[in-house]
Amino acid sequence: MLANVWMNASKLAEMVRTQGLVYKKGKFSAIEDAQLRTAIENFRVAKSMTDNDIANLIFTKDRGRGEAFWQEVTSSVHLRPITAVYHHVRRLWHPMRGQGKWVPAEDDSLREAVAYLGQQWEKISERVGRSASDCRDRWRNHLEGQDLRKSGHWTKEEEEELTRIVTELTVLQGKEMDSEIFWGSVSHRMGGRRGRQQCRIKWTDSLCTQIKNEGSKPRWSQLDAYILVHKIDSLKVNDDSEIDWKKLPDEHWNIWSAHTLQRRWLTMKRSVKGYEDMSHGELMDILRTKKATTPPPQNAPRSRTQKQPRSAETIVDSDPEEEEELGSSAVQRTQSAPA
DNA sequence: CCAGTATATAGTAAACGCCG
DNA sequence: CGGCGTTTACTATATACTGG
Questions:
Q1: Fewer CB atoms inside 10 A, N or C side of chain A?
Q2: In angstroms, how far is the first alpha carbon of chain A from the final one?
Q3: Acidic residues bias: where (predicted)?
């Protein structure tokens, strides 16, 4: 069904409601990508086609001609709808993808193309030499309204303005401070001086975190690293690309944004020598021991720089699954520090 | 104890991506 | 195609380390 019927999103949603259909959405993991590559290669060999033939098949506008191809490829990934595979593969195989930074000449070319053609991104793509979605992103995120846009450090006033706007949109509506927000409109209400991504990152990583920590910036501690490693470990994923970062924090350990946690994970991962050639499992084995056996420097000189140490006990005893012998040692370490 | 240097972190920007 | 989210790269600054 998923692999054979082309359903758009609303049709899918309806099937979920009426038929109890289950399907997977969201970012494709590294494992799924590998499965897709294998399936495509198998198809190519079985039909004795060239890479070029495959590319033609992927990008042909004649949906009927590629029907068997898309069905077979889709069946190689679990619970993905054929429509999602179609879009994903076309992006992945796009000849103009991944060209890196835009140079000023390209920006000029894009401005000119938009002025001439309006927002016809496929046509613009041909003129500029970047994929249609790259052109659209570059335009809407960076070029449009660029004269208004500010970059660099935020002033106190800007931070207060953002806090006020977000508070109006969340707390004053009876919502959580870190609930979903339409960042496009926040950006608009900031007078376009800051873009949607600027506003979002500034809020989730900095201002919101600071408020949750009673007004002062929290510092990343060894305990946080410990919790992060063990949370990831408890997910039992095969690869870190399968982690849903939004689901990591819980009610007692929620001061760090998903974005921050991902970044922390990345640097932690890179700190392991030879991580590039390791499986996720091997990496976790190393990190589990590394983060469990390296206690924070005793009566840490670190704690002096920590303006306002938050209560560590609440955080620790909130992780019932993760205590065991390691958990209890973490409690001891941290309880002696603040107070 | 200090200066000089290596390393970690925070803040920012932007590429990359999925959904309806 | 417009909407928004996620992941990674870059860089300035803070912190740790080292030899003198």
A1: C
A2: 59
A3: 316-326
